Fold these 4 entries.
Entry 1:
Amino acid sequence: LARAFTTRSAFDPPSEGYQLLPFRFHRLDKESEILVNECGEFVIAPLGTTERIVRRRLRPVDEIYGTLKAKHFIYDGYSSALLDVLASKYRTKFDFIGGSTKLHIFVVTLRCDHSCHYCQVSRQTVNKGEFDMSKEVAARSVEVMLESPSPHLTLELQGGEPLLAFDTIKFIVTNAKAGARQKAKELDIVITSNLAFLTDDILDYCKAERIKLSTSLDGPPTIHNANRPRPGGDSYQLAIEGIKKARHVLGTNQVAALMTTTQLSLDHPEEIVDEYVRQSFHTIFLRPISPYGFALKSGHKTGYEIEAFLQFYRAGLSHILNINRRGYNLVEIYTKILLQKILSPEGTGYVDLQSPSGAGLNVLVYNYDGDVYATDESRMLAEMGDFTFRLGSVLKDSRAEILTNQPFVDLLGAACNQSLPGCSDCAFQPYCGSDPVYHHATQGDMLGHKATSGFCTRNMTVIKYLFSLLVDSDTETQDILWGWATDRNLAEMRSDIPQ
Amino acid sequence: MRLHTAGVASGFRKPLVVRVTTQPLSVERRKDAALVAVSRDGLSSNVSGYAALIFQEKVDALGIPVPVVHSVRDIDHFRSGHIVALDPFNGFIRTLYRPESQHNTLFTTERCNSNCLMCSQPPSDKDDAAALTARNLRLVDLMSPAPEYLCITGGEPTLLGDSLFSIVRKLKDVIPKSYVHMLTNGRRFAWPDFTSEFAAIRHPNLSVGIPLYADYAPLHDYVVQARDAFDQTVIGLHQLARHEIEIEIRVVLQALTVPRLAYLAEYICRNLTFVDHVSFMGMEHIGYAPRNMEDLWIDPLDYQDELEKSVTILARFGIDVRIYNLQLCVLRKSLWKYAKQAISDWKNAYSEPCEVCDVRDQCGGFFQWNTKVKSRGIHAIKSSVA
């Protein structure tokens, strides 16, 4: 005998209404606003929706009622709010914090053959020793690095030009590997170099030690050489030759390139992107110049307003999307990071765009002289005489001391955008970060004034732009963007998606 | 395809589960075997050692030292290796297992704690768990050759409690390589102790298929006719994921589930990220469904937009999507690549236009009973336009 059925109205929520869960909102345009909850889940809805929600004007029969309930914006007496599920999503989002300090940057020497306009710290060849990392400092730095609880460490060797101090590199690599083995930690090693001094011996060493290379490529020769002067004016040629040689010996994906956007770059987004394609790179990072050190001082030469950069970014991104449509896979890294933050339930630990900020927490910089800084930018500030973010010294401090000294405690106080003025009520907070070092450098205040912050303008603009693409662009563009967020190229997306 | 028949039972008082043989066996191989024959003619006079004898003709069972079912209506469907259940009271012979089939099941109980509006196999409240568990445990012991794939179904298998654990343990011990898929509403897994004990069995090839009909609790609960079912199922899914058990989400497409289908897809991406597959299934027109057609019927042609949108959301996210029980002629071409042929061989049928259809071989066809309520889109596809 069949059992009886219960009518639909028996499953209606009780009439006493609903309660709010934490969320934030932002007007997108004249018609719509975006609501974002603590875990970064979003609803794009007609303007006025937030007001209707908070004034308790929604009714369970409204389509958006169910959506807001399912996405954890509101809850009612019908069922549990499934807060455990919300908690689990929140935990997933912030899982990256548990990783501790993964990235360890060693400044093995300040000496460099280049005199780049945006570099703060390099010294034209002075006598060896004065600006090189001593064995004592190197050994202690490795010890402090290995004190990090992270099971996976990345050791980045940079300068100056680190290949000018190759013996120091070898000493550090040997020590670090032995220590990592002993502590059963995984260790990745990267050398960041302009490749001008790359030799076959160095490459053989890198191959034997499984060391990756990272270099600078600012665009085609005119832009690259103008940004990166060296005696002979052949920085571009040396970098390209170095990339080719290194790929041949180490393998294509063992060599990465980064670009810095100068004032000169601003007018040439497409040429710069094309250069990356010409050199067979599949990632590009349209990176604004850091407003530190020489870059601040020589603002007339390299600096620019953030609006000019955003114009450059949009033109570059649009060109990159076209290149993907034509079948060449090229990912813009900053866009990818933001898309992952927006579209994925996972958290993304990118030290320059996370909350709490990665400075000190997920990255530490060990300077040639033993001083430890929160970020590479912190070290550059120090070269200008501002030691705010010098956290300690490997010569007298343990890791525990470095991370409990006053400078780091002060930094942490400004590291969580959840509690920063201008951020705490921003809809895009879950996708954004905090950058106490940037705000200290540009505004003299770690907390920062967001209305005039270049960091805020950049991220607000880019995030809104990405939302407009995710909502309004054609299927192919959306597939490319989703592919970046989920590590699939357009061909793979096409085979996965209804066509 | 015939799966049951009946005759006159004699010489046994408890249900028997036996493996069929159509050829006489030597004495030492007779244990567990039921010999099928037209009559006693031509059989050796010594039949001792068989678990049972099945005769098409009437046989005088007196004096035969083993259980007998005679006067059986049909014996042509029996193949050596099939496993059948013999009922001592009504002489029923039900085929439980066919090694050559991809659609073997362990039917655990008719009871269910939900009462879905479109249930294809409506529950009943009789207490059948003990008898069916005994039958299933015996059945697994006899499965030889082992199946590639086996489905645990009901009713709601988790209502068995400890008996379900015994069955899964038995499967792990006897046929560990057979891939087991259990169809459950997942509600019982909301209780952590139950899930821990289930997971502790550590069956190496097991997945669960769990239906979720909406992102919005009241709607899901209405469809399954059970208050709190949504919360329990969602929590159950999280518990299962914590134990790293493979999960398929099953969504039946009908008039109540279609309007929020895309929201459900988004819900799965953000809240049930860990699921391994999401399956969209055309509704079966049997069981409760015919009775609730006013509430449930929507022509599949009329939900292709929602289906494509939902598949896109899941596929963009990277979740594996499958579509079952929808004929290619009503399924939008962009969705063909997700369509699977999976209707059990004994339930499968084709309709009249199918006879001249050029993609019939790729098509899942119909449930027999669905040929009665067809989409207006059913038509033969000619390769010139396919």
Entry 2:
Amino acid sequence: MTTNDSQVSMPPRPDGQTTSAARPLFDTIEALLGRSIFVDLSFPLAGMAGNPSLESMRMLRLPRPELETSFLLRFRQSGGHMPVQAIDLSSSGLIWPPLQISQDNRSAVVVSFEGAGAAIAASGRLHGSHSSFLFPVHPADTADPLAANSRFREYRHLRLTDCNAGPSFDLFVPQAAPQGPPKGGSSWDGNVKPEEVIFASEGANVVVDARSMIHDGGHLSEGDGTYSWLWTGPSTHFRLILPQLAGARSRLAEICVPRTEEDSNLDLLAVQFDGRPVEHHVDRWSAMSGKITVEIPHGSDYSVLTLIVPKLTHDANSGRLLGLCLDKLILTP
Amino acid sequence: VPAPFHELSWFTPLPPARNGIADYAGMLLHEAVKLTPCVCYCENPLAGAPEGVEVRDPSQAFRHLTDQSPILHQIGNNRDHVFTLDALRHFGGVTSLHDLSLLYLHELGSSRLADLCGRMQAPAPAMGAIYARHWKEAGIKTAANYVLFDMAAEVLSRSLSVIVHSQYARKKLIAVHGEAIASRIAVIPHFAKKLAVTTSRQARRELGIDPGVILILTSGFASKAKRFDWLIEALHHLRQRGRRFRWVHAGEERPAEYALTQAVHSSPGLSEHWELTGYLTDDRLDRYIAAADIVVNLRFPSVGESSGTLARAFSAGRCCIVSDTAAYAEIPRDVVVHVPVFDSVGALVRALDHLLCDKSLRDTFGGRARQYARRFLSLETIARSYVDVVAASYLDSKQRAALAAGRRKLRELETAAHPIRLDFDMDEELPDLSTSLGPGKSDFQFTLWFSSAEHFAALAVQKPALINSIVGPHVEIDNVIFVSGPGDSVRGHRRLGVRVAGRACG
């Protein structure tokens, strides 16, 4: 998609707003900027800016305490196919965009943050890199408007509003981005209202397919772009980092288990949230399958769900130790 | 009495881990939670924690603990305790130390041999360096290593207080690691668990043991130090004298360590009066203890360990025979029969002979053992002692603050440590870097300067392991590169440098 395409799809509205024909968030951004690469520096707190159909490249922002860093870097994203890389924006050797992302010259880089404060803090290092900044609009955000004013003066400011009443996002696009910002919009100024762009979140529930799960298990997701699954194992412990919509925890997590080779893995399953035991319910579909439902405890920190099975089954074909086969994680706000 | 803590965090394995310390911690936790709220960080979330104790994931403990969180670690010398040692390193706390030698634990938990080599040099640098070099360079690791290098220094330095089970253990730690640690070591004896079944008749009925036979019991993993060789020889003599008994070993055999079955079968006439149960659950072990007439619990050499079976045998009022050594020597003389560690077989024969023939003598020792257990070793008393020690350790706010500041400083130093940089001219004597690059996890870079490439080649032929020979075994080398030096005005050519980068571990 080219910039011209995005302009075609977004005729300016008489009231000054731009419509995106209610596309999902990332699609809306691509319509604005052209082909984009999304780098999520809010990991693990936000994990997902608001749209599961396009995946971000999650990177862990350093510095952090050593224990937390080593804990979080054990996780792998994209169903286990990609490591979570660390990045230190304060490092003198910073390379941006990171080498881990394959960026062609025509792609815009959109970096997402958990809030305005983090984005402002990072903008000092990423300024001049032609990257756009994306972060959720928190009503209680305490980001310093003066700092924002100075950092984002040369950026165009767009307010992405969910027509389904979900969280809104601020998008700051550099004036000299390779694809060029959309016409219209406004540079950051406390007195000037941002240009409104409407997007549509994909319903209240967030569905994470196995191929998109961020986990610390030993096995990779299998399947294709249409359907994917993932076996837990070889450890009895399987941890998942749950995406949070605009940094907010969901209320309910449902994990679909289409198969296990050992029925006691559903009967005697233990579930932890953030390392503490939580109640769970198993809705059995059959002796060897079902859905695990967990009420997510309140909290402002990132969410780690752990499934612990009592037994692992040796798979003669692959030689792997298998626990539960998962295909979907459904999060309900 | 108000609970002393908002929450006392334990790091320990729990049952069903096949680990005596897990059983110990489970029982102690059951009692401690009556005194103060407790949570337990345990690798097995399906572990059998007592009611009211939440089992948490140790890998996410950092999300729940602060510098002020009171913590109790149960540390023993096996794989189940690797995570507790890690937790102590990160969070500090009070440690209940069940083994005085932790080399095996460090071996299991260390990814680098150089780390172990470094730690072996504290507190006996010269001897440690020699043994470490033998291990690293020749793969020589003897049983002596596990006695000589206890690896307790780190636990002692990182713990607010250390709880041990005997005065012997305390004295030994002070003797090896210095008087400065004395005020931080508390002695709390091993508790004597109350057995559900204490009558021999009931226990034997449940186990299917002849009520008329005199039962001698040994227990636990069959190790060399439990001196089955002495017992087998003594029992062989007694059989020859016509004494009647049945010997049950209530525990598992580790043939690689000590081939118990083979040893029994090689003693004529003994095997038909002997039984090996294999691993037993806690309840079943209790029944064997209750069914026993004589409990034999020998150790030599002892590394200061305490025996849970022995404490339970006291609780059940059973007559016990122990070695007169280490922590066992502290048990009052009228509570157990002590057997010397020299001429042990002869002494064992005499002791067992009298006890087999004299039920009243067995009952006398058993009665005193029961009294001793009730008075000093009750679970309630021991749990209270634990909570008191932890509370006292954390109430000493100055010490706590100083340690927290020390830990912060250490972290800062570790983060900001600049590598040591040294240069040596190889025209002179070979440098000895074992001291200047002593154990301590610091990065280094040194350069050996040779007058020419020929000079380097000559020395390399003369001393093939040149670099290894000048650094200690705790040193891990990351890379070696050649560098060119400034011109030598006398010889008219450039000097050759060998730059070595790595770290001094331990």
Entry 3:
Amino acid sequence: MKKVITGDHAVAIGAKLCRVDVVPAYPITPQTLIIEHIADFVNDGELDTKFLTMESEHSVMSAAAGASAAGARVFTATSSQGLAFMHEMLYATAPLRLPVVMANASRTLGGPPGIWCEYNDSMGARDSGWLQLYVEDNQEALDMIIQSFKIAEDKRVLLPVMPCLDGFVLTHTVEPVDIPAQEDVDSFLAPYEPDIILDPARPAMIGTFMPAEYIMELRRQTVEAFESAKDVIMEVNDEFAKKFGRDYGGLVDTYRMDDAKVALITMGTVTSTSREVVDELRQKGEKVGIIKLRFFRPFPSGELRNLASNLDALGVFDRSISYHGGGPVYNEVRSALFGMTIPVIDHLAGLGGRDVTKEQIFKMFELTSRAAKGEKVKEVNWHNTRGETV
Amino acid sequence: MITIKELSDDNLFTAGHTACPGCGVALSIRNAIRVFGKDTAVYVPASCAVVFGSTFPLGAWKVPFFHTAFENTGACLTGMQAAFEKKGKKVTVVGFAGDGGTYDIGLQSMSGAAERNEDVIYICLDNEAYMNTGIQRSGGTPFGAWTTTTPVGTKIQGNQRFKKNLGDIVVAHEIPYYATLSIGHPLDFIRKVEKAKNMKGFRFLHMFTPCIPGWKMDPAKTVEVTKRAVESGMWTLYEVENGEKKITYKPGKMKSVKDYLNMQGRFRHMSDEDINKLQMWVCRKWNLHYREKGAPDVCEIAPLDEHHAITEEHREMHGP
């Protein structure tokens, strides 16, 4: 069934289709619509879930951890300052292997305060042990909530997952979305049945104090789970594609990459705008393409190396800044491509929610193409920025 | 009502944990869990109790145990209870937080759970300072007490603020049950734990738990010091059930606060002036608790004379 809905509505419907047991909630723009829709589902009797109106985001993630440890399928949503406020608890849920799914409405993390799209909120959580993915449209937002639970709860993974959707660009914008049937989701996503939970019938201690003699092995196990997650993400992607007819490509998706010589790595909604730019450049005979980075954690280093092996230059779109110079995506890509000789050019745009226009993306391709021809181009470029711009 | 004899001997919080000899927290946990029984799940925030009861690979808990952080007892209990309820399991969900984790950093989370009237039992193990980090002042530290952040200096000696009135703050949430407990009064202790267990909604048990190194006292005197706290009015035993306050133990004639202070090194430096100041605070509290309506003040301990005030000479004689 197709419905014209916002990204937040799509996410809420996704959670409902997953029959979540517990939803601890706290409002923050631009995520609030998600929990409002879930509250409506609960109060209208459409969803049998424990909806908990917590008093802060820190308490949201604490309640999520408690509920997940006690065996519940837990969903919540947050954004920006809220994600920062619960930061401590992100580090508790992941190593305790609690497969919570939390949507993050990407929003600039102040100061100075703002409410529009930037990735500096979720990028700060990149080393917390959560899987992290970025969606392009409202359909993908809904579909990835369902996939996230299946990935998170897989016994080879057992890690929390954070699907991120661009604040306002998706959260508050309506698009037609195909809503899967409940019975199809039920047959795709089995009920959550963990082995070790808080249960008086089989008492276990979860979250014990951990001395130095043991903690490195636990960290290592979490890394191994991240490695396994790469396979699981592909499997889930393929199974989803088979059942629902939508194939997102897994860790990365590509557009017109077959014979491309210059490519741009994109994330989120900018990917859609970039497709148009690529089409226009292709008409002019330029061999350009897009690598849509879907999962930032685990980071698809191997996939990117393969894709980059035929390129003359690679551009990277970054929607947040790591203050030593480039953006976090750029740094990860440079690290992944270590030893390869192609120029990698960083393009900072859209910070604080500033629109990323086609003109800016043309400029990104132009600069990257010049680097491909051996011209000297700055490594880090600020687009459409007063004072310091390309 | 169960008696001490009828209490289960199942060691759900087993021997072999690494608490200090005479630890009031360990004693309180052990006796409380004996009343709660095996269909219980506990959350313990950052505190001594996490370290001495759950340092991997050892563990003293034979009921499900959960720990994540410091300031989130109310919230974690909320999540655990929600999951049990959703799964149709009947489990008594209990949090064992310290005074720092309740009076200070965990106040918001506790308040949220209380306000929502979550069906959980919140226990505050009040040893009147951050003991796990090495004895720092909390909102629960009494006036005059030495801690490492309220040291006995040449200019300022000990804690300059009075103990926060947590009981009234908790009760203001209009919860079904709030009670104060002391392990020096075991019958009262067991009765209150059992009562809380059999009620629904947010129940708060406030336990007075001496700390041997933090209070600088003889480990053999844990029970006696709590008794003296109650006899002097430093700790009062009462319960508030659905808004009705009831004194559950009324001491006889009020004992001087000195009887209580003298047992503990943390108060040893206190000047007569400061002891007097604390005594007046206790008198106000005593009157508030024990005075019959319309009766005159029941605190009969008079303020000390002016000349007892601390002087440089006094300090030289008795040390800081």
Entry 4:
Amino acid sequence: VKYLPLVWAAWMRKPGEAILVCLAVTAAFTLFGLMLGLRATYDGLLARARMDRLEVDPRFPSSNGLRLPLAVRDQIARIDGVTAVGAYYLIRGYFRNPESTGRIRVVDEGMRAAGSELPLTGSQWDLLFATPTGVLVSRKAAERWGLKQGDPLPFISGPGLRADGSPYWEFHVLEVVADDPSRPDGYILGNFKYLDNSRPVQSQGDAMSLRVAIRDGAQANEISLRIDQMLANSGTPTISIPDHANQEFVQNSGFAAASVTWPVAGAGVFMILLLTGNGIAQSVRERIPEFAVLKTLGFGDGVISWLVFLEAAAPCLLGGALGIALAAIISQLPAERLPQGLRGVPTPTMSPGVMVVALCCIILLALVSSALPIFRLRRLSTVDALAGR
Amino acid sequence: MMRDFIKQSVVMTRLNLASLSQRVWPSLIIVLSMACVIGVLLSMLAETTGLVHAYASAGSPARALVMAAEHSTEFGNSISRNDVATIESAPGIARTIDGHAAADAEVLLWVPPTEGFKIRSPTLRGVGTVGLTLQPGFAVVAGRLFRSGRRELVMGIRAEDAFGLKVGDTLMLPDGEWPVVGAFSSGGSILEGQLIADADTLMTLAKLSGFGSVVVKLADAAAFDEFKRWLSTNPGLNVTAERQSDYYLRTAEQASAFFTALAYFVGVIMALGALFGAVKIMHTAVSTRTREIATLLAIGYRPSAGAVAIVLEMVVLSVTGGCLGAMLAWVVVNGRVRADMQDVFDFYVSPGLVLLGLGWAVGLAVLSAVPPAVRAARLSVVEALRQV
């Protein structure tokens, strides 16, 4: 602590340049924090995606589009190892204005068990299935759409879904419920009966997909194949995939931000390493006589190394902290305030783990930046330096 | 007067560049920082440019795509055979040698793999007899073409790498397994990652009620407006027409909009970091050369010429970094195969992309050189020379 004034004096020797280095580090760590946060989000999604949940989709479109008759649900339920089967349909559309797009997942009774990972209580499921036009809205979705319990939710879907030709759905909010970490943007659950009763007769009894709960996640591959083989020669062949495998694939397929998080974060830190390294090397170079005086006064190599390290660490710590704080603020911005193209990016998770990794990186950056100047000072000949040679 | 100014600027720029050997590390850091920014930006954009390029290779402004009005995409199956016949009678369509309309009704289907969980599914394109003649550069390179009325298909040459398919394999399709009887190329277009089969056979076996689109060869590119007007005013049709080139561009841009925005977002933040760093380095450079600059000013050189020289020096360093970044992007990602959910294409560091990178490098150079340049221009000669 007693040497801090020396570090401060060195830093404030050229305050303008110190501020510029700080700003450069801030920008780099904003990017680093966001990329790390994004990586944490993807890792979290993968960790939560379960092997004991399968998604069963129609393999080919029928003349009505991609649909699965509900009768398939009962066939799948009879397979050994299957504990529950639920059906759902996604009503896509908008609320209030065409910019405010979203989707309502209408589910049947089977989802109570097949979707048991949803943070809903038994009474909330009861309420949903007892009220055809009711919806359960998660906190994030309620916040985004400005909804509260009891509010009407007029929803406008695409054409052709309702028998009466109207695109309007008169939902109302039953309750605002807990968020599901697997659905970072929130969710809205509705009652399948409302959809089914409103559709043309020829479409009734069709789901978009089925969700299957199985007893043992280790059997996920086998049961998925069994479902597909069982229905291969039926009128509606299926393709089944465990949630975990699906999530893994989505993260690794084209245009997935997950694939660029580490390379981008690495490039940003490498760039800033060059700048901070140059800054501290230049500062030491300009003050060789000053360090020679310190050595003459009895300052050991260890103390001088600490002084140089702290001088390098100060802008890294300050800029890094500002950058991570900025990243945390950006990650909290509601989707509507982001540029149009970025609204699909999952919210970065600025968890304590991310902060710790960022802090380690900041310290490593300071260490690497100051290594060469410290090495040079340790080999400094005090006599030559004082003589200006 | 202007001539003098230019002459002085050139002399001072040459002096600045000659002194770079005394400032190797700071100069190298500016170059490497710019290389990082431009390298990352171009590597990310190469992915979206690759997709746009692959789609653009398949499209032509002299061909039009007619789609169901409610879908506005090739996917769907609501264009009936009667609709196709009506569309073929529209004005502006080129004629084949035997006098028929150069139009082909097509249908698209995603084909999930027979086994396993990979949900990456190649697109199967059902085409009619005229369809393949409307695809320029289409050539069977292995095996043979599918036969009409038979359950068989051909695959694009890129489907092999992306989906692990080869000639002789079978694919599970509606109503059983279909063999892959041949492989085709189509000039590097997006079709090379797709499968092609006979549309009528596919529709019958998949029990599809209609086509997804009708591809039309126009008599000439200018005939499109009349063709579109005729379709939109025909009360018996509920379709929309778009030039094939416009449709493919729109499709590719929609698919890549998110990643393009992310690339620019990352690029801007990295550029800010590099910008602050470069300003700092150039400030230091001006400080260490105060005497040299003051001497030049004392012998009659204009302050503005000194400022211009600093900007030009920075542009040279920054563009060198930009070139290095573009080269890195080219070496690391150009030509890498990317298989999206359904599309297969190459990363493409296009000449346009390189120019964009160099544009960014010049912009960053100017922005980062202006503060030190202003400082150099405002230098008090007397004060500076006192430091001698």
